[in-house]
Write a structure and sequence with these properties.
mainly alpha; Na+/H+ antiporter like fold
Amino acid sequence: MAQSKIDIEVLLLHLLPLLAFIVCIARLGAWAAVRLGQPGVVGEIMAGILFGPSCLAALWPQAFASFTNPSVEGLPGGTLPLLIKVLSQIGLVLLLFLIGLEFDFSHLKSTGVGTAAISLTGMALPFTLGLGLGWLVHAPLTGVMEKPPSVFTFSLFMGVAMSITALPILGRLLVEWGVARTRLAAITITAAAIDDASGWILLAAVAGFAHAQLEGGSYSPAALLTMAAWSLAFLACMVWVVRPFLVRLTCWLLGQNNGQPSLALLGVLLVAIFSASAATSWIGIFAIFGAFLTGAILSGERQLAEALQKNLRLFVTAFFLPIFFASTGLRTRIGTLDSLTPALVAVVVLFAAVAGKWGGCLIAARASGFSWREANIIGVLMNTRALMELIVINVGMELGVLPDSMFTMLVIMAVTTTIMTTPLVRVFSRGTEFEGLKLST
């Protein structure tokens, strides 16, 4: 008994300084990014990469290892990295609940031929480019993996990674710029919402393929059909059974506390989030899908959403997100691009991602009657990847679909496409609804 207590204290002695360091560098990175007119998320991502094995940690590898993965008597090796990984996944579960809660499903209604064309092209073109690219680079990049994914699973994942748009970051930028109610903003948000909803469905399919391959050693149609059946049953249960009960209960709890969240309300929501996440994890389509769906079924409850903004989002953003970004930074190894082939593939990945999203949406918007400047703004906004891309590629790593080199390439792509957004929108804003606005975050 005493030995167990000593072990926990030793663990905390190493874990707490590491958590303090992670939160500190994340906030400093976010502050620096905002000062440079970039979203804070860019700074947090860059801070994780800067202090990871790709940059500063490479200068002092022994000190870095002793700080992030110390060898301590009484503690199994790798305990600290495992705890960081678990905390980052819990943070993702809570974050996806909040994203689902803020998801405005009215954007998914038809808003015209132009929006439909932008959405379809913005999904289809990068997805097709990702499929083709995945097929081309599968053999040279996945050959180093102990258990490489099938070319079909890898290519399908690459298609999803190329086609995603960072809807939460995009929405936040438009609000901070004061253009959220403009025609361009409404059309872009609608198209991005449709694309991301499609992307999540496709990502769930990739998870199904990957799990079927891992369980059966090869692609199993029966396993995939079983997973799909369980997924549909779970969705039906959440919409028609859990939603009515949860809406009534949360509204009653809010009313009991004069519209303010209470411990009872937060407790009920945490039980619902973790239970749904456990269910989707058991099904085999990842815990974050259950969390997202829990938020989505409550997305019409605006009072609840506003109340949780004040009590849950701040803590998730301040504590859990930095851990997620740090975990991503620790996985990002730019050294894996140290030869000509992966370096060229990294350039092609970035080019394909930008050409697919920006180029595809630009062409569709222009064909729908928008001016060249308006069409470019729509394309640039749709090209923003940021947080959602990082979530997708971390799922890919957990599934065993991505080698380290491709993970690094996609992180670079996510950061680059996000950094591009603000300065490019500023360039194309003249003569549009965005003209004269202070485009900074």
